[in-house]
Every structure is written in structure tokens, then in C-alpha cells.
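*Target chain*
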Amino acid sequence: MKILIIEDSSALRRSLAVGFNNLGFTTDEAENGDEGLSLALNNDYDIIILDLMLPGVDGMTILNKLRQTGIETRIIILSAKTHSQDRIDGLLQGADDYVTKPFSFDELHARVLAISRRCQAINVTNTIEIDGFILDPSKKTLFYGSHDLELTPNEFKIADYLFTHRGQILTTSMISDNIANNFDYIAKNTIEVHISTMRKKAKKIDAVLPIKNKRGFGYYIENYT
């Protein structure tokens, strides 16, 4: 799982990052609202831990902008605001949970796992069908009719990322970040080779993969209805 931590307290932010990294999570960090919003808009995360009182763009504005742009990443608000109305406002604006400071790391970890389980339960039955192709996130398969394209793990990650973000142009850097972790990088040429191979697999079964390229920008799948 990949977590984005948006928190202006450097001590708390690093403590959370170290704690989750030690548990096997991958983390990105942002010390202000502007940086946090940019990371959240341009990268794919499983969960965002969001402080409300941030320098630059405040946490509630970040939450609103993410939901308005259709980003459904699970968001846990982490705030010193303890009034019930603050909790209500955060949840009504689209947060998935609200944790007040001070808190224990074990409790936050438990909430992250609980949200993750809920997401997995939803995804089990969620298949995505585009132009005759059916992508199943739980089984890691991409079918066209009765034909399984038999994608490699990296090919499936690319297909999954593009299918779930259909209608959006995704740069090779965004695709690389989604395939790899913070310490690796998948070269542009490698991504192009993966997509070329996927197209050849589709062609073998007389199908045309719906992944398109906008030269100089990135790859996309049209937002079919």
C-alpha cells in the first residue's frame, strides 16, 4: 500500500513515515498544502493522511478539490480540531475517517487497515469493461470475450491504472510511479515496450487495445459510457 502523509509538523510526519515504512508500507510526505495537493493530484495512492491546518492550501480545501476532480482515494483526516462539527464537516466533505490529535500510532494503523479491508471488499466484485475488454482487479486479469490476454504483472499494473483513470491523460512518470515504489524508476522506453507488447497480445485475438497515446503528453483511454 502507498500512503501520502500531508502534515506540517516535521516530527510527526517523519514519525508516521518511519512507522508505516517499518510495517511495509510505501510513503510519500508533504509539509504544506500546496505540495500535498500536487502530489495527490498527480500520483496514485491507496490512502491519504491529511492534516487540516496546513500552511498554503488548507486541508479542507485539499479534500474538496480531490473529490471535485473525481479522485476517490481513501482519506483519513488527522487534526487537532476536536469539536463534533469539525468531524461532521470533514466526513460530509468526503473524508473516510477522522482521527483527533493526540492519538496512538497503533490506532491510526488499525484505521488504515480497516479502510483497506473495506476497499478490498468493494473491489472484489468491481470489474471494468471498456470497448469489449473486461479488467478484473481482484483476479489480475484482462479478458476480451473468452480470451485472456495473460498480462505480466507490470503490464497488468499499466492496464489497471489506465482503465481506472479512463478519460485522463497519464504521463510516463505517473505510470512509472504507479508500477514502481519510491526507490525505483521504470524508464519511458520500458513503459512503451510494455504497452506495445499488450497491443500485440490484443491483435493476436483480433482485438484493438483501447490505450491511446497523445504525443508529448502521455497515454489515455477514452471515457466510454
